[in-house]
Each structure stands twice: as structure tokens, then as C-alpha cells.
Amino acid sequence: MYSSIYKKQKIIVLFTFLLLPVTLLVLFSLYPGAMLLYLSLTSWDGYSAAKGWVGLDNYREIFRNSEIFSVFSHNLYYFFGGIIQNIIALYFAVVLNKKLRGRNIYRVLIFLPYIMNSVAIAYMFSYVYDSQDGSLNGLLTLLGLDSLITSWLGNKHTVNISLAFISMWKYLGFNMVIYIGALQSIPDDLYEAALIDGANERQSFFYITWPSILKIVELSMLLTVTGALEVFDLPFIMTKGGPAGASDTFVTKTVDTAFHYSNYGLASAMGVVLLLIVIVVITIQRKFILREEKG
Predict the structure, then answer these.
(1) From CA 294, how far away is CA 257, in angstroms rounded?
(2) Residues 107, 180: contact at Cβ < 8 Å?
(3) Quick one: CA dihedral 71, 74, 78, 84, positive or negative?
(4) CA 242: distance to chain centroid?
(5) Which residue, of 87, 127, 204, 295, has the fewest CB within 10 Å?
(6) Largest alpha-carbon pair distance within the chain?
(7) Beta-bridge partners for 53
(8) What transmembrane ranges does the database entry give (predicted)?
(9) Residue 162 in 3-state DSSP?
């Protein structure tokens, strides 16, 4: 009897604890995802009650229209910028993990941009890159490098590099903190043993530090790839995709399709395609990681 009552209480407790998270999951993930998939099969304009069924026509339009997929070339700037950012972040993490005077101050200064609001950062760098009174062009003038002065956000050759640099600057501190945490988890005994055996700093890094933090590096690269695919805030706020679409990313193109051209059906299909691309990329990376673990 007591066993039966205990089992019922256990079921009630489990159901109670699961009710809220499952409800939130359905309301904010599963239901919107299902609606996104449904709308991607319609020609909804975003405001009328009618949602004309078009089937897979929106997906055919995406793969036929070269202008839609060509914007992924702009996302590559953020991807390569992310790789450079990870290298610099790892360097700072190694340096600031040592007994260096004032290292906490340096950590805070490098991490500070990450906690700043993206909109504030965008407006701040709008003044830095201003072609007339910008501080960057002013610095180049002061250094006698007038030949390098340009409209950083108005030149199609420099706009994506300029935006990717801002992204690097903002997320550098975040990756640095992640790497510092990984470095601090490595036992000091390993380095002491390596020092006794005559290993120098370079050998200690490649034979002790690097293998120990490799999984963290892979995680950072996973975030870098997905972040590069989903870039939105900086180009949307600072350039609106300009000049002439030179800084458009897939997400800004999707938003423009929905709100500027009132084609929510096509925009929903673009959202589904981006979701599938992210899933494929993550799956490939996870398969690579698992293969390394099995090996």
C-alpha cells in the first residue's frame, strides 16, 4: 500500500517538475518551429488572413536565386575573423594565466567589450569608421598614411572586413575567459614534471596545454561557425546591408525579405534553410569530435 502511494507521489512530483519546462519548450520552440515550417509552404504577406499554399515553391526560389545564397560569401569574413579571434584569445589566455602583475586588470579590459550592448558598440564604431570625422581616418592622417583613408563602411571592399573586426573585438574577451578556465583546470604537476625533464615553454604548450584544451578549442570553433552563419546585428544597424548589398548576410537578407518586401513565406523558408545548414554544420563538427575521441 505504502509502495503504491509512494509511486503515485513520485509520478506527481515528476509531472509537476516537468510541466513548466515542457510547456515553455512547446510554446517557445516547438510551436514556433512548426509555424515557421508551415509558413514556409505558403505565400503569406505578413498581414492578410489568407495564407495561399504554394508547397515547395519558396524553397525552389531560394535555390534558383543566386543572389540569396551569394550573401554567404559575406559570412565568410566573420568566420575567418572568428578563427583569428580564437588564436588571439588563446594567446592572451596563456599570457594572462601566468603570474603577471596587474593581470586581473588586463582580463577585465579585454572582457569588457563582451558585456557591452551590441547596439551601443555599433553606434560607437560608426563614429570610428566615419569617413569625414572618424577617429580611424584621423589616426591614419596623423601617421602620414593618407593613402589608406577610405569610407570604411561605404566601400564594398572594406565594409565586411570592418564589421568582422568589430565582431572580433567584442567576442575576444569571451573566448579568452573560456580558455583561461580551461588552462586553470590543467594540473600544475604536469608542468613541473615537464620542467624537470627539460621541456621548454613551447614543448609544454604543444604536448601538455594544447591536448588538454583541445575540446574547448573545438567548442569555441563550433560557436564561431554557428555565429558566423547567424550574423545579424552589426550589418543591420550599421549599414542596412549596404553599400548596394555588399554587407548583407543571410539573416539580414531574410529580415529584408519579410519586412521590406512583405514576403513572409519566402522569409520563413529561408529561416528553415538556415536552420538546416546550422544543424548540418554542427553534426559534421560533432562527428569529427566523436571520431577523434574514438581514435
Answers:
(1) 44
(2) yes
(3) positive
(4) 21
(5) 295
(6) 90
(7) 42
(8) 12-31, 76-96, 108-129, 161-182, 264-284
(9) helix
CA Rg, the chain, in Å? 25
Residue whose grid cell is 596587474: 102
CA distances from 256 to 11, 67, 249, 269 (A): 48, 13, 10, 13
**CA separation for the pair 210, 213 (Å, rounded):** 5
**Global confidence as pTM:** 0.87
Q: Which three cell numbers stand for residue 110?
A: 579585454
Cα 181 from Cα 215, distance rounded (Å):
13
Q: pLDDT for 118-128, tens place per residue?
A: 899 999 999 99
Of how many residues is the chain composed? Answer: 295
| Rounded distance between C-alpha atoms, residue 107 and residue 205, angstroms | 21
- What the chain holds in terms of domains, given with CATH numbers, is 2-59 (no CATH), 72-248 (1.10.3720.10)
Vertex 33: Cα angle to 27 and 34 (nearest 5): 95
The SS3 of residue 12 is helix
Taking the C-alpha atoms of residue 234 and residue 253, their distance in angstroms, rounded to an integer, is 13
Average pLDDT on 187-207 reads 88
Which amino acid appears at position 164 of this protein?
A
